[in-house]
Each structure stands twice: as C-alpha cells, then as structure tokens.
Automatic annotation (TrEMBL):
InterPro entries: Gfo/Idh/MocA-like_OxRdtase_N, Gfo/Idh/MocA_Oxidoreductases, GFO_IDH_MocA-like_dom, NAD(P)-bd_dom_sf. This is Gfo/Idh/MocA family oxidoreductase. GO terms for molecular function: nucleotide binding. Coiled coil: none annotated. PANTHER family: BILIVERDIN REDUCTASE A. Residues 156-216 form the GFO/IDH/MocA-like oxidoreductase domain.
Length: 319
C-alpha cells in the first residue's frame, strides 16, 4: 500500500482523510493543518496523527493529498514534488496558469505523478455515457448552487464552472478557438454568476452557465451530436441518451418516427446506460494509486488541470 498524507483538514480535507483511511490502496500516515486548534480537534475526534510541519509529513509518505486553499497549492506542490513525492491536488490546480505550468514541468523533471481533483470525471452519470459522447457539436451546461460563503474568495468560474470546463475539454478533441463571457458580482467581491461561450476549431460550441446565488441546486450538461442527444445530471446521478437511426420500412406500432422536409424518415430510440453507484472522491483517489502502481497516466493529469485553469482564466479575463 502507498503511504499517504493529507495537507489541510478543513471540510473537504476531512472527507479525504476518512476515505484514504478506509481505502485498501493507501496507508494513511497522518495530516498537517496550519490551524493548530482545528488539527487537534480532528485528531482527537478521528484518531489521525498530526504532523508538526509540512516537511515532516512529506518525509513520512509516498503520496501527498493537497486539500488546502488554492492560493497555497503551488507552494505545497513544489515542496512535495522536489522531495520526489506523488501529489493529488484539489481543483483548481493552482492560482495562476504560470504556477500550473511550473508544477507540470517540475513533476516531469522529478518523474513524479500528479492528479487534479476534478471529481465530476468520476461521477457515475458521466462515466456511464462518456464513451457515447463521440463528436459533440453543441454543449450546454448549467451548474447552479445556493449561496454558501465557503468558496466565495474566488470567482464562480474557479469555484463551480471549472468542473464543466474540465468535462468539456475531456470530450471535445479540438483546440479552443475563441471565448466570450460575462459575469456579475451580486453578493461577493468576485462574480457570483457567469455565462461563457467556448468555440472550438472543429466547430463545436459550448455554452456554460454557473451561479452560486440560485434558489435551487442544478448540475446538468447536455451534449448534442449527429443522431444523438445525451443528457447528464451530475447532481441526481442520472443520464439520458436519445438516438436516431434510419427508420425501418415497416415501423412497429410503438416506434417513434420523424420525417424531415426532404422526406427522410428517422426512428428515435432511447438507451439507458448502466449507472454504478460509487463514491466519486474515493474513486479518483484510488485510480491515482493505480496510476502510480502501474506507471500509467492519471485520469486527470496535471496538464489537463492546467488546461482547464487556462480556459477558466480566459473566461475571467472577459469580465
């Protein structure tokens, strides 16, 4: 088993500690948190070992799980990578694209692996249909959340929309051509609601909306491609696939048939992909262990995390 340590024992850090502790692919050694009182509370409640310094933790483990505020991501990652330790780092990968690039380059030099915590890649509703998303030409995403003070230190694009940016970049096999966007600050000092349009070189267009001041939560994405419509509900963990094929010469009584202006008939049919119930955070952590043990590329590499951040920053620059 890989020896693991966690940097940061806040809300998400405690979740990571619990999951690493129950995983049979990791041996949780302990954690470090700069807030001594919080560290003591977490240790007393759950029995995890506290380390006095980041350096002490790094020395004791093979893998460091970085669940600290975004501003500290680069400094924490740099110390870990320079010590030859693999890193799992929460999204967004870093505060700036320049930091992300340095992190990628340093990891390549030190020959260590890194994965970014874009957890929606492991959502069972998405994994159930991702292989069916072949050449989407129009994508629409809505990620709406009720107001929560946690996370408002960064624009909603880095807090929420970046999840959808990463998912979109993972399925559109084309370079970004143009980005336009608008954002409004309502409660916070940074934009609380934003809309972005991403145009790709292959003609695909993605329209993204994110809000953290909504009256209800929603996390839906819709993918349109030739002869298919695919809907993913990340919140409810449901998906829907509607496909079209040439209509049979003698349709059945219950077949759904459409005829266009040219007289071409198409049959509409539905597919219900299997959705396997999972813990997405545990899955992302354990697939990272597999990547280390098997010397394969992590599912969400540092480079992919950097690309998602790059697009997010371009969107923010439009405001």
């Amino acid at each position: 088993m890989l020896k693991a340590g966690v940097l940061g024992a806040g809300h998400l850090g405690k979740i990571h500690l619990r999951l690493l502790n129950q995983s049979n692919k990791y041996d949780l050694i302990g954690f470090y948190d700069p807030d001594a009182e919080n560290a003591k509370r977490v240790s007393e409640e759950f029995g995890y070992q506290i380390f006095d310094t980041i350096a002490d933790l790094i020395k004791a483990v093979d893998v460091v799980d970085i669940v600290t505020p975004t501003l500290s991501h680069f400094d924490c990652a740099k110390q870990c990578i320079e010590a030859g330790k693999h890193i799992f780092i929460e999204k967004p990968i870093s505060n700036t694209v320049d930091e992300a690039l340095k992190m990628v380059e340093l990891a390549n030099v030190q020959k260590v692996k890194g994965q970014v915590g874009h957890v929606e890649r492991f959502n069972p509703a998405f994994t159930g249909v991702k292989d069916m998303i072949e050449t989407p030409m129009f994508i629409e995403t809505h990620r709406l959340a009720e107001f929560n003070p946690r996370g408002t230190d960064v624009p909603v694009v880095l807090d929420l929309m970046i999840h959808d940016i990463d998912v979109i970049l993972s399925v559109v096999k084309s370079k970004v051509k143009q980005i336009s966007a608008s954002g409004v600050s309502v409660i916070s000092e940074t934009p609380d609601i934003a809309n972005a349009r991403i145009e790709f070189e292959n003609g695909c267009v993605a329209n993204l909306t994110a809000s953290r001041i909504s009256l209800k939560n929603m996390r839906k994405s819709r993918f349109f491609q030739k002869d298919a419509y695919i809907s993913v509900d990340f919140l409810e963990k449901k998906c829907e696939v509607v496909k079209m094929k040439d209509a049979p010469e003698t349709p059945g009584e219950f077949d759904m048939i459409l005829q266009n202006a040219e007289g071409i008939k198409k049959q509409i049919y539905f597919e219900n992909p299997d959705i396997e119930v999972n813990n997405a955070i545990l899955d992302e952590l354990e697939t990272f262990a597999d990547a280390i043990n098997n010397n394969t590329t992590p599912i969400v590499s540092l480079t992919q995390g950097m690309e998602a951040l790059k697009v997010a920053k371009q969107i923010i620059d439009c405001f």
